[in-house]
């Protein structure tokens, strides 16, 4: 290498270390290469785009730059892609060797490349990888289209030195660019955060948060409390830990948005989560206050205390009310660990109640939902239950216990009856139990349990000594109201066998089924027996 080129390389090294701007560095590499290589017609620098996994045109001399900007080589594609993977410089001295290395170039890339080099045939060339810390950052290609121009090993070594020097500068420029972009991103992220935070401080609500987000990302956004499975690809969850509070339904999948738009969506999601948590805390206080109002009504308050309570629920003192209690069959009506699950359920009951024209007082105790319903017409309760069943039939299995109609001053009576009705519903697995329609069970609730157990045992003591088949027979016989034929069919036994068992039961208990008093006492005692066994289970 002559003294001129050696000095030139030292100057280039100094120049490359003086800039952190990628465009300026690439320009200096092209200028230096042009000065150091005598026979080159074209110089092209390709840089690797990690996100796209492609080698793309970065700088060139003697080419149609607009056409080459459309070229994107995959690693291993054509000469550029192969040198990128091999990380070794290569000198091409024959057209045949060049054609062999370029034969796997895609048709689209070839079309743009051919136009980019102005439809000329390469006579000789060499390619040099740009390597820093064993990472290939790109490739420098030097082409000659003149029949008489042939590159030498010295030419390639000179450009290799330039490439090695430029690799460090390019890497530093990329680091600087990334830091600058991150700093810009951080500033914009803080600005976005401040805008959403201001909405929260001003109490502008979820609607305004959504409007701001739509303006930021130039795309429609809808907030839902539940996501439709068909639209899950476009749904961005609003989370509180593992609890999903709702979803933002975006115009397209989240990954398709720019990084800045993604930050805006995330900030909006966080802001909505805070709004939902705040609203839930307020609503929980509201539910608690309703319970306090109920307690006042339950205690039979009068005078100004009663008037304050009635004013809150918008009732008149002479109204008739009715209590209804809802409880889950196998699972609670809401999940305690999910922040707004209870709020969603209670609000849905409120909406249904309003839709059937009821001004109900609705609150919760433990995992029960309690409704105090002013009575205007009989169909209200049925409409209310039908509405709840329709809305929640696929998600919740609900028991309903309904107390009788009472005055506001006797509200405690209807409440106790609703409690007994829900207890009966759970015990006997009956979905809807209205206390007014209960038969003898109403009386049994009023009697001391010890007295009931004593009565039951006095009536059935001897029956316990018989085989289990006798007890089953008596149960079916009572359920079918002493129908012999249906009882035998139900038990799959001969009528003579049934006759024998029934006679045996009469003898053991010393009663006659045809005696009205004996039969009533037996039925009551046996119902107590069945209820007692269900409790034990």
Automatic annotation (TrEMBL):
Residues 21-180 form the GAF domain. Belongs to the CdaR family. Transmembrane segments: none annotated. Pfam families: GAF (PF01590), GGDEF_2 (PF17853), HTH_30 (PF13556). This is GAF domain-containing protein. It comes from Siminovitchia fortis.
């Amino acid at each position: 290498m002559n003294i001129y080129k050696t000095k030139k390389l030292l100057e280039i090294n100094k120049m490359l270390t003086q800039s952190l701007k990628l465009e300026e560095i690439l320009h200096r590499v092209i200028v230096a290469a042009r000065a150091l290589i005598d026979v080159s017609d074209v110089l092209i620098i390709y840089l690797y785009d990690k996100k796209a996994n492609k080698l793309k045109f970065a700088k060139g001399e003697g080419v149609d730059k607009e056409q080459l900007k459309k070229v994107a080589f995959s690693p291993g594609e054509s000469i550029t892609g192969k040198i990128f993977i091999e990380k070794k410089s290569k000198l091409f001295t024959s057209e045949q060797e060049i054609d062999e290395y370029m034969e796997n170039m895609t048709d689209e890339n070839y079309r743009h490349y051919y136009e980019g080099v102005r439809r000329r045939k390469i006579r000789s060339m060499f390619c040099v990888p740009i390597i820093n810390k064993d990472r290939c950052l790109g490739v420098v290609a030097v082409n000659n289209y003149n029949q008489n121009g042939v590159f030498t090993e010295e030419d390639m070594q000179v450009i290799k030195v330039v490439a090695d020097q430029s690799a460090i500068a390019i890497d530093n420029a990329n680091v600087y660019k990334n830091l600058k972009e991150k700093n810009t991103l951080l500033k914009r992220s803080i600005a976005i955060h401040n805008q959403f935070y201001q909405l929260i401080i001003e109490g502008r609500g979820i609607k305004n948060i959504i409007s701001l987000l739509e303006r930021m990302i130039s795309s429609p956004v809808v907030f839902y409390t539940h996501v439709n499975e068909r639209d899950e690809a476009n749904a961005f969850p609003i989370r509180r830990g593992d609890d999903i509070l709702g979803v933002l339904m975006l115009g397209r999948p989240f990954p398709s948005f720019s990084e800045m738009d993604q930050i805006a969506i995330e900030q909006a999601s966080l802001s909505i989560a805070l709004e939902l948590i705040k609203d839930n805390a307020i609503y929980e206080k509201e539910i608690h206050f309703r319970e306090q109002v109920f307690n006042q009504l339950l205690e039979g308050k009068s005078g100004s205390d009663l008037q304050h309570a009635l004013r809150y629920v918008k009732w008149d003192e002479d109204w008739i009310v009715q209590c209804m209690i809802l409880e889950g069959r196998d699972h609670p009506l809401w999940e305690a660990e999910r922040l707004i699950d209870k709020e969603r359920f209670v609000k849905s009951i409120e909406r249904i109640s309003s839709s059937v024209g009821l001004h109900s007082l609705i609150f919760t105790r433990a995992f029960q939902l309690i409704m105090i319903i002013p009575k205007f017409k009989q169909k209200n309760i049925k409409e209310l239950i039908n509405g709840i069943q329709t809305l929640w039939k696929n998600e919740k299995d609900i028991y309903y216990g309904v107390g009788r109609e009472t005055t506001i001053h006797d509200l405690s009576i209807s409440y106790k009856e609703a409690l007994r009705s829900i207890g009966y519903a759970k015990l006997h697995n009956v979905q809807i139990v209205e206390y007014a329609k209960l038969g003898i069970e109403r009386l049994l609730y009023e009697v001391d349990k010890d007295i009931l157990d004593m009565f039951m045992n006095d009536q059935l003591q001897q029956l316990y000594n018989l085989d289990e088949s006798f007890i089953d027979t008596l149960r079916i016989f009572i359920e079918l109201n002493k129908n012999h034929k249906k009882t035998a069919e139900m038990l799959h036994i001969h009528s003579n066998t049934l006759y024998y068992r029934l006679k045996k039961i009469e003898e053991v208990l010393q009663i006659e089924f045809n005696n009205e008093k004996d039969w009533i006492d037996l039925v009551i005692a046996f119902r107590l027996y069945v209820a007692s066994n269900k409790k034990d289970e």
